[in-house]
Amino acid sequence: MPLPRVARTRSGHVWGESWRLGLSFLFGLAIWGAVQAQLDQRHLDPTFGKDWLLVDLAVGVGGAVLLLWRRRWPLAVALATALLSGLSSVAVGASVLALVSLSTRRRWREIAVVAVPWMLAGWGHALVYPTEDQAITLPNVIIGLLSLAVSVAVGWAIGERRAFVASLHERALTAEREQAMRVVQAQVAERARIAREMHDVLAHRISLVAMHSGALAYRTDLTPEQVSETAEVVRESANHALTELRAVLGVLRDVPGVDAPADGSPEPPQPTLGDLDALVDEARSADTTVSLDRSGVLEAVPEQVSRSAYRIVQEGLTNARKHAPGASVHVTVATSADGGLDDEAVRITLRNTVPRPRTDAADGIRPDVTVGSGLGLLGLTERAVLAGGELTYGPDRAGDFVLTARLPWSR
């Protein structure tokens, strides 16, 4: 399996090919000059005559040209240049570079195939240029084996380095892909958080609007003053819902400050446990019987945990009003500041009775019950888990619906 290559510019590729081919050709020329000097010293001629030196040079140029295809057909080029080096001294440089290039693939079978013509090339070169009494001598064999081992070792080392660089490159690409996935996951998580925030904010207000508007539609015994008061409550709830919707959607704007007040005043902060009294009073104004027990110092709770706790209480009251109208709700909020808890956490309990189903309308649907999406408690559970806590809900043995939550101050 070929290794992935790091992308290079065309100029870099041309320069890399040029200096390699030039170096191999100069190495062959050096051997060619040394052989010619040795022949002149001993007053000998090549086997095929003095003009063979020019043929040697031409064959060496042809071997250098073959190197241009060494990456496409590495084994064939290595075999061809090895055979040419047996006839040409200049082709020895091309043969060395082809063997080094082949060894970078780190395949022993290919290297063993080329080793045979490589060693035979030394014997053929000794026949073409008979500078010794014997064509095959021990020094020639040793030199051939050493040159083969050195070429293979250099090519193998280059192949190992290329594999290492390729692995680093692949790791970098993998890290970039993982980073892109984390960014997408963070965006999805943030959108889900905003959706939960919108549900927590709007469900409470819209349920009030639905309840009071339903009362106006089905209660025909109301006095004009009561109708006016109920309509005012609907109007105020709708305005509050619109204001809170704008506050939540403000985080989705690309340009900051689009929904900021025209007079430059800061936007109101998100409600926390310090606003429980106002929340309970609002629920009581909707004809819901609510009792609140608090223990500990609520102001000591971190702001983020306090906001989540407030949303849990708010959603619990909303669900009780939507699915158990007329039932009394008992809310308990305890913090670790009272010394009664074993860790720094906020514990919340909402308990309400489950009334028997009844119908007052002709179509069998209760006018004071609002159909919900069923995602409120699921969103609260996810919110509690993301905060490092837990949330459970369901009927107990007494038949009451109980919602309990625990939010740690730190994880």
Automatic annotation (TrEMBL):
Reactions this protein catalyses: ATP + protein L-histidine = ADP + protein N-phospho-L-histidine
Start and end residues of each Signal transduction histidine kinase subgroup 3 dimerisation and phosphoacceptor domain: 190-254
EC number: 2.7.13.3
Keyword field: ATP-binding, Kinase, Membrane, Nucleotide-binding, Phosphoprotein, Transferase, Transmembrane, Transmembrane helix, Two-component regulatory system
Recorded superkingdom: Bacteria
Record field: transmembrane: 20-39, 51-69, 75-99, 111-129, 141-159
GO cellular component, one term: membrane
Keyword Cell cycle tagged: no
Domain Histidine kinase/HSP90-like ATPase: 306-408
Pfam families per record: HATPase_c, HisKA_3
MF (Gene Ontology): ATP binding; phosphorelay sensor kinase activity; protein dimerization activity
PANTHER family found in the cross-reference section: NITRATE/NITRITE SENSOR PROTEIN NARX-RELATED, NITRATE_NITRITE SENSOR PROTEIN NARQ
Protein name, entry field: histidine kinase
Organism: Terrabacter aerolatus
